[in-house]
Amino acid sequence: MLCVFFRSSRGKRFPQDRVFRFDGLGYRVMMNVSEDLIARGQRVMLGNYNPAPLVIARGQGCVVWDVEGREFLDLTAGVAVLSLGHAHPRLVRAVSEQVGKLSHVSNLFYNEAAIRLSERLVDAIGLPRVFFSNSGTEANEALLKLARHWHHLRGAPERVGFVCTDGAFHGRTFGSLSVTGQGKYHQGMGPLLGPIRRVQYNDLDAMERAITEDTAAVILEPIQGEGGIHVAAPGYLRGVRELCDRAGVLLLFDEVQTCFGRTGRFMAREWDEVWPDACSLAKGMGGGFPVGAIAVSARVADGLPPGSHASTFGGNPLACAASLAVLDVIRDQRLVTHAEECGRWFLERARPLIDGERLVDVRGRGLMLGLELGPGLDVGRCLNELRERGVLLTRAGSSVLRFVPPLVVTREQLGVGLDTTMEVLHGM
Ligand SMILES: *Cc1c(COP(=O)(O)O)cnc(C)c1O
Question: Please, are residues 358 and 41 in contact by the beta-carbon 8 Å criterion?
């Protein structure tokens, strides 16, 4: 009898996942662990985000568990960051070993991990020089500064302007924010960097008109990510390249989201066989470790001479060891080809589901995929219902469900994501 009571008291009367707190009036309130953590977070964290009410505790591959032990299929990969999924053993080993050996030296000295990663990136990307940052926006800042400074060194100091595209997303620091083509991010943040001209993505005539004597560079994403998964139309990137060459303007590709095999090519520019003068990369590059970079052509590599730009953390051996491990696994597990095949499979499966009402378009390349919902459907509600069913997705633009899973995702997992999405859409 006693024994039965003991067991039930452990299981029911004092469950492990309940937390007691006192509210403002001194009443004892019971919350589950998530509610408690979220309430604490909301009390002390700046309100600039609006996260889903889910506290993730651990992950393995494409699966995560929250603090209550609930399981979710993670097709967000931390917004296209976790190339190898959660807790990949080779990434864990590489970072653990490096942190025990040497984590930071600053740019006062060389370190072998940064040199090795530079060599590997030069090989993989095909541009001869790299610079390391810690994030995407910082990489883009480096691109913008490189462009202005390169013209400055060539006796064209009037070339300070940038041309960017509607729907573009380049980051949140002032330079990259200024070339971001989404007005909502500019609200109340002005004055921004100038002069900047913004043109419709995929419109070559508008691009031609926007490039003038004061233009330093054109910056664009080969596939717009945050803006809604918009793929460059055939011939567009080549056309922009020609316009830039004719006008003596640099072409900068923001490959922060598309880099490291995400689109089924190591870099998305390979789809169009067009070379930028320099490109930025970040998200998938560290497999979850914060790291970014720019890769630069020989022609403009002298744009940032000693002293012109820097980053304290950039190129630290810890981040570089992480990125080297990501490169090794991408090569050994043929993840670029895998991403391409998965993308083709997904598009073939999803396109027939377009009904012009709930699902109006399906697009993307490799594992950067978007399902555009009909105008009447609420993407936020759809994401909530998917989460209730154990699938994590994110949005892109105002009406697109974004699939950017780890590159190690299986077709089965992608299929679960798509089937669950269709179930949710048909219930709406
Ligand atoms: C995410 C993103 C950025 C910004 O990267 P952060 O690391 O958040 O600064 C820039 N450009 C593109 C294309 C992105 O997707």
Answer: no
Q: Give the amino acid at 208.
A: E
Strand partners, 369: 364, 403
Q: Tell me whether residue 419 is one of the annotated catalytic residues.
A: no
Backbone phi and psi for residue 386, each to the nearest 5 degrees, phi listed first: -65, -40
- At 373 the three-state DSSP class reads strand
- pLDDT tens digits, 58-98: 999 999 999 999 999 999 999 999 999 999 999 999 999 99
Ligand 1 binding residues, C-beta < 6 A: 135-137, 140, 169-171, 221, 225-226, 254, 256-257, 282-283
pTM recorded for the entire structure: 0.94
Structure tokens at 301: 């590599």
Other beta carbons less than 10 A from residue 307's beta carbon: 6
Cross-strand pairs, 86 = 61
| Distance of CA 281 from the midpoint of ligand 1 (Å) | 9
- What are the C-alpha distances in Å from 132 to residues 74, 292, 309? 28, 6, 11
* Cβ atoms of 282 and 74 closer than 8 Å: no
